[in-house]
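Repro:
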Amino acid sequence: MPSGGSEVIDALRAAAGERLREGATPAAVCGELAAQTPWWWDAVLAVGQTLGLPESELLRRLHGEPDRVQGEFRPGEEDLYGELMETLGVFDVAKQLDERELLIVEQLRSAMGAMGGVASGRALGLSRRFALRELASAFRSLAHSGPRATCRRPAEFWEALVRAGELLESEERNEDGTVAHTLEECRAHLARSMRPQRIHAEADEKRQRDQHAEHSHPHRS
C-alpha cells in the first residue's frame, strides 16, 4: 500500500505520542495527522503503534483495504476518517477486567442472549464497551432498548439486567445515580414480565388442587 516511508511514519508517531499525552483522543490525533500526509494510513499506523497495536491488528480491525477506505473520503475530511477508525474500534486497547466486572459482563451477555436477537453492528458496539470497561454504558444501552417484540424470554432478559445493575450499583461513583435509576426501571420491567408467569402458575396450581379434590372425593352413585 502507498506510504510516505519509515521516516514519515516515525515523525507522525512522535507527534501522535505528544498529542496523546496531552489528552487528545486517538480519533482526533488520527485526523490531525492525516491532514499532514497524502497517505492517511500512515496516520493510523502512527497512532496505533503509539498505543502498542501492530499493523497486522490494525488491518484486521479495519475490515478493508486502506486505499479503498481512504478513497471514500475527500480532502478536508480527515477528521471524519479518524472518527471512522474510532467507530470500527481500530484504536481500542482492551482493559483488564476484575472479577466483579467479569460477572457483570456475563450477566450483560446473558441479557443479549435472551433479548430475541442482536444486530451485528449493535453486538460489535457492545463488545467494544465490554473490552473498554464501559460496563455502565452497556447496561444503560441494553435497558433502554429492551427485548425485541418477538422475544420469548423477557423475564430472563430483565432478570439478567437486574443482576448486572446490582453489581454495578455496588460501586457506582457517578453522582447522578444513573445506574441506580436504570436499575429501578429494570426491576419494574421484571415485575411486569413475571406477572403472566405467576398467573399461569396460579392457574396450574388451582387445576392440580381441583384434580386432587376430585380424586380424593369421587362422586357417589
